[in-house]
């Protein structure tokens, strides 16, 4: 749990071979309601073709100043722990972004990092661009994609960089399952890629231990075909996002506006969940007057630890309500929302 | 596997708002048969209300000298890796316990520990109380509850403290799922809290690598309601304890006498299991006369490694028989128990 | 993913109490087709009875020079992280093997290693035998069996030994579930041993991070009985090997020729898998002419990361075709194999 909100990490190719090469970038910047991502990630890496990367960078630098995007902007640049040529391109992209739109971005996303030392290199690249172009120290964040065996091996050490001098800019750990599966030699035997449950549990833990955000990986089976009709694969994506929410990932990766709707919704407590936890806190608050440390409500013992879980639900709703009141107003009954906003949340 | 027995880690609030504030403590101390826990944990932390903690401490200090509890006694004190005020209360509780009932307790349980350095602080708090009140060095144990992201992150390093000077008093690693889930921001989407399988596997491993006990977390859905009738949730708890036993946890947390019965039973080999493994060892002992390193029994190859698993079963039964002969006598046929006690257990 | 091939790690007792004590060793050395293992592991440890170990060592030294085995030969010697007597026997066995058949073996397999320091001792034992008998530095490999809590705890550190001076000979990390389960006190409650999914995922990751092979553990429920008829347990073993293949283990342990057939088959891409991935690469190669970074094929987005997974399939087939053309010729249509061998595999 961190106080920063990133229910949705939506990547958009920075340039595509269409009349308007910035089409997807523009539609991400102007999305509304539950379709608006918390983080928009203009993608200069795998989503943009090699021969369109220069145009992609131009698109990002030209468009960002024109929009008042209510969430955060985190361009993804090129990087590779084992290829200095690619890292040099990444450093140039970081430098250009910080120089031209340093005030419009919250940070950069660096993929394919290796061990702790490679993440340190990325931290230094950002620090150096930040200093060169006169931005306040620490104002440009760094998020990394965990998608190599080396980064998984050093996950604990990478997360701990945040407490080092210069490491405060480290903000999110994002999973990259496709590269990761390729690097480990994982196989799809007809039932999809491995889920990497162990990695995801560790990602959630190390992010929480280091006060970082933890974000799930992309789901690329966007559409399913049945007897000649192609439909959006709503079940497949929702199943993945629910698994991620359950183990405490803060947000999910979106490749597509419908995915953004779903991830925003799933990472927002449901009305039933909010009702249940508001109710338990209200009943607990009444019971604590009687002075017992642990009370039983509906057959479940409630102590300070149980209480914290109920409080998480309410605090998440309050945070979303601050930045996206149109979403909470749409989702909850007025009466329930009011109870959630006014509830006493101290255990003692 | 350690030689110390803790099939059941039963917490009992040290004081509750009833006529007899020590009611649950007293009933834990006098439980009999399969209802008697291996470890009784008088709870001064979350199970006792803030305004009853002083009385809880008095209850513990007054009652313990009056009972001859056949298992071990491990009071749980207050602690917090990120709150020095709470730690100061914990140190005082440890000091009082060691001063007043140091001969009646086997150690203290410290919750909400953080990284390795915080566990070192807890080790020092116990060592200091022990020295101040003239107890032999190492006579007061320390068990910790793993329920923060930091403790999970440092699990390997925490377990290795046992081999440091002064670390020998470290005895058990106990899982605390409720606080842990709250800290990671895990969600109950209608099907319960996450199981944290990765953490439990690591807990079992690091405990075995460090010669520590590994104990599962509490199960707080004590009762289930069906069409107006409330019943004890026997299936839910037994499912959890069986999962814990399967992966080598030494014991399970109990909040309730019926849970203690179930956990004691599940962590004791079943008659069928004992019969099966005694039979395999007897047949292996016969086969080894013929001088083959690996023999096939019922389609399964048996070598020294397989043999160790069979031997674990028999040794667990022998250990329980030493401390709780009334339980083994009740559970097994006389003939089977006799075969288990007399079996030759050396592989060569 | 490493370039070295070990789909099958087949152990064969070095001596058994039969007229021909080298029976199983000989049959492993002469196996043909899909029954021929990639690695043959003459077993001087648990598979050979204590009083036949000397004869087992003789068998290995006598037989190896007589056969042209097309795969690799890796004898398993005795070892124990906590018993110097057993380690001394292991050092002697290593010395004898390197002296007598150093040119015929690819390395030795050392079981029951403990923490990183114990693996260093094993590396030194091999280095010393190699130097004493005039073999080129690094020519005799070392593979270790991960089957103790200490080795699991230090897995990351053990894998990193490969990058230390003298560590290059480290080749494979092999899982040993039977000893491991015994050491952790795991239980078979009627549904088999625990699967240790967390350990296997870590094994795959650390092996990939360290350019090592990762190999699954033995499956010892070789036969199943149904109404009086005993049959080979083909489903049980295949289920395990498929789980291992899915998460990127390079190969599986075989105890029996039928297991070798199955593991060789499962670790070889199926015709459908090869057809699917060849087709996707062909269509991607056509699409990339149009200059888009990510294209959608059958509803799945294909970028450089997705592409790597398809390429893995083709490269695995090419590697097997180089060493076992009789297997690839048998398995694939001529047309498909030709397409796989001729495909352009560069992403850009």
UniProtKB/TrEMBL annotation, chains A, B, C:
Gene Ontology MF terms in the entry: lyase activity; magnesium ion binding
Gene3D superfamilies to which the protein is assigned, alphabetical: Phosphoenolpyruvate-binding domains
Domain of life of the organism encoding this protein: Archaea
InterPro entries in the cross-refs: Aldolase/citrate-lyase_domain, Citrate_lyase_beta/mcl1/mcl2, Pyrv/PenolPyrv_kinase-like_dom, Pyrv_kinase-like_dom_sf
UniProt-listed Pfam families: HpcH_HpaI
HpcH/HpaI aldolase/citrate lyase domain sequence ranges: 35-188
SUPFAM superfamilies: Phosphoenolpyruvate/pyruvate domain (SSF51621)
Necessary cofactors: Mg(2+)
Keyword line: Lyase, Magnesium, Metal-binding
Example GO BP: oxaloacetate metabolic process
Record-given protein name: Aldolase/citrate lyase family protein
The organism of origin for this protein: Natronosalvus rutilus
Lineage of the organism: Archaea, Methanobacteriati, Methanobacteriota, Stenosarchaea group, Halobacteria
């Amino acid at each position: 749990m961190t106080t920063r909100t990133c229910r949705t990490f939506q990547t958009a190719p920075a340039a595509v071979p269409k009349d308007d090469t910035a089409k997807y970038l523009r539609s991400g910047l102007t999305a509304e309601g539950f379709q608006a991502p918390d983080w928009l990630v203009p993608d200069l890496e795998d989503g943009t073709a090699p021969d369109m990367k220069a145009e992609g960078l131009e698109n990002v630098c030209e468009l960002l100043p024109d929009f008042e995007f209510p969430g955060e902007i985190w361009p993804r640049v090129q990087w590779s722990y084992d290829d200095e040529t690619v890292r040099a391109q990444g450093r140039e992209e970081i430098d250009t972004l910080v120089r031209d739109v340093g005030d419009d971005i919250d940070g950069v996303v660096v993929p394919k990092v290796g061990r702790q030392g490679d993440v340190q290199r990325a931290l230094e690249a950002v620090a150096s661009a930040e200093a060169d172009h006169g931005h306040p120290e620490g104002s440009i964040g760094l998020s990394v994609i965990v998608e190599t065996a080396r980064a998984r091996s050093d996950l604990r050490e990478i997360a701990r960089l945040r407490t080092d001098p210069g490491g405060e800019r480290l903000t999110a750990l994002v999973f990259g399952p496709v590269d990761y599966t390729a690097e480990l030699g994982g196989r799809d035997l007809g039932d999809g890629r491995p889920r990497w449950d162990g990695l995801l549990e560790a990602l959630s833990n190390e992010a929480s231990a280091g006060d970082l955000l933890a974000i799930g990986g992309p789901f690329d089976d966007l559409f399913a075909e049945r007897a000649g009709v192609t439909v959006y694969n709503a079940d497949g994506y929702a199943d993945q996002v629910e698994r991620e929410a359950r183990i405490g990932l803060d947000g999910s990766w979106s490749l597509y506006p419908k995915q953004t709707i779903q991830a925003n919704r799933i990472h927002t407590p449901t009305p039933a969940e909010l009702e249940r936890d508001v109710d338990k806190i209200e009943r607990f608050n009444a019971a604590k007057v009687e002075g017992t440390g642990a009370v039983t409500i509906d057959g479940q013992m409630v102590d300070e630890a149980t209480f914290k879980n109920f409080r998480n639900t309410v605090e998440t709703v309050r945070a979303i309500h601050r930045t996206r009141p149109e979403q909470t107003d749409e989702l909850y009954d007025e009466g329930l929302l009011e109870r959630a906003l006014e509830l006493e949340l101290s255990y003692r």
